[in-house]
Write a structure and sequence with these properties.
mainly alpha; 120 residues; 5 helices
């Protein structure tokens, strides 16, 4: 799923834009799944709310499941704050992206997409 959003950039070894496109793909997918139109923390906190969830990654019946839902939303918010925002607002020359950093970030993005595969 990740490569649907960033294959061309990855093939070109353009890690800065690979990560940017892959992260943006998460928001697009969540907007498509939830019919929400917002972005960033507002989108994720609304979509994965534990009181009125639009999307659930589990049954939300136990404290552990509620904690997992909150943590999943927090993970995505953190990814956007730590990765998408700097890449979207800083030039490539002032925010370098190594291959190793890109691969680690893509691994996290892959985990998020896998959880979304089973969200309802």
């Amino acid at each position: 799923m990740v490569f649907n959003y960033c294959r061309a950039e990855l093939v070109d070894e353009n890690y800065f834009h690979t990560v940017l496109e892959a992260v943006k793909g998460i928001a697009e997918r969540i907007r498509n799944m939830s019919s929400l139109t917002t972005d960033g923390a507002d989108l994720f906190n609304t979509a994965f709310s534990v009181k009125h969830p639009i999307l659930k990654i589990n049954a939300l019946r136990t404290d552990t499941e509620i904690s997992e839902q909150k943590g999943f939303s927090n993970m995505i918010v953190g990814l956007f704050g730590a990765v998408r925002n700097p890449v979207a607002h800083a030039p490539k020359t002032s925010w370098p992206m190594s291959e190793l950093d890109a691969l680690d970030i893509l691994s996290t993005i892959s985990f998020i997409h896998r959880k979304l595969d089973n969200a309802h």
